[in-house]
Amino acid sequence: MSTKLKQIINIEDQSEVKLYPKRGIALKKSKGVYVFDTNGKKYLDFMTNLGVNILGYSNPKIIEAISKQIAMLPSTHQTFYSEARANFLKELKSILPLSLNKVIFTNSGAESVEAALKLAIAATGKSKFIAASNSYHGRTLGSLSVTGQQKYREPFLPMLGNVTHIQFNDLKALNKSLSKDIAAVILEPIQGEAGIILPDKNYLKEVKTMCKSYGVLLILDEIQTAIRTGSWLVCNQYDVAPDILCLSKSLSYGIPFGLIVTTAEVGNLMPQSGHGSTFAGNPLACMAATQVIKQIKKQKLLKNAAQMGNYFLEQLNKLNHHAISAVKGSGLMVGLEIKENTTPYLKKMQDMGLIAASSNSDTIRFLPPITVSKKEIDQALIIIKEVFPNV
User: Fold this and answer.
1) pLDDT tens digit sequence for 188-228
2) What is the value of pTM for the model shown?
3) CA angle centred on 133, ends 241 and 218, rounded to 5°
């Protein structure tokens, strides 16, 4: 271990409250689908900071736009109009269902969920929610209340509000729990932290129909799934438009940013000053998000995500190793479920130059940039095959 890395580790370990297990390396720079540590070692980034850097790194058009904006006006409060904000809203409208036309800006995924829950309460006058077991929606108190994983919830019980957790993909369980007293059902269209769990073909559509029959709102949390699976939104693939949509992560090239999008009918029921955030909707993040959408369109990257995702899944399905129990995913949101804890396998991959993440404790999660090429996926597969050799 270099002296410089030791210094970095000592400063962080002595100063930070321990919230995350550290990976033992310090990242310094990036380019394309690669990141580099302080020793100059190169890694394929198939984690992208849990889905944030969806276009990889060092995109010249986005860097140029961000640089100009930060020099001109990096931040302005939402009480002022902003050209950068207006340009983003215009671009955003082109990728959303027509019914979703009202926006509340936030700074993160968790804050988007917070704003969505508040909006549901304001719009319905009710405060009960239904969420899915093993779901993940964030770690602030409101978002943690609807998160369905005890390891995150238990230290902070009792949670806020009245939340019923039901099994994902189980329409009977939903029907049993639904009533006119419920404000909203909140779901991830693909459960990310639970192990990359995909919905059954008609599940989301049936959920929306059932919610509507009870006068209950449907909130879809696409904070991790948006853009990554071969379409702008996963709900596009299932022909469902939620009442409230939560977005963040992949939209703004790593600059903190988030928003919820809703219908005019629901959005107009939020009281003035019902939600607010000093940095939300700032010109810098809006400029980045505008350029992200434009680059995806220009380079046809949704198509690339679908094609490369299919190829990656096909190759992973050819693995024959005693520890592998399942391969699953959609587009470039891919899970390799194993019969053992993921940590030793993730460590081996990292040592060999491939960074991935865990999902639950039994699934290795791959979230590569949607700019990834077949050559780069093949490079990752060489490492994966060494870690999981065929038998």
Assistant:
1) 999 999 999 999 999 999 999 999 999 999 999 999 999 99
2) 0.95
3) 20
